[in-house]
Design brief:
The chain is an all-alpha fold. Helix content is 79%, strand content 0%. The longest helix is centred in the middle third of the chain and has 15 residues.
Length: 52
């Protein structure tokens, strides 16, 4: 659980509106594969991706 919280914080840093949202989605996809927590990670990542 702690690792995933850190990942979400990293996404928030990366998703500052200057970054290409496709890159953010790619990072999210890679993280989902590595954490094996697809649904939870996607739910946490969507607001970050959409916010820009």
């Amino acid at each position: 659980m702690v690792e995933e919280e850190v990942v979400v914080e990293e996404w928030e840093d990366l998703a500052e509106c200057g970054i290409n949202s496709m890159e953010t989605i790619a990072i999210a996809a890679i993280t989902m594969i590595t954490t094996m927590r697809t649904a939870w990670v996607l739910v946490r990542a969507l607001p970050v991706i959409i916010s820009c």
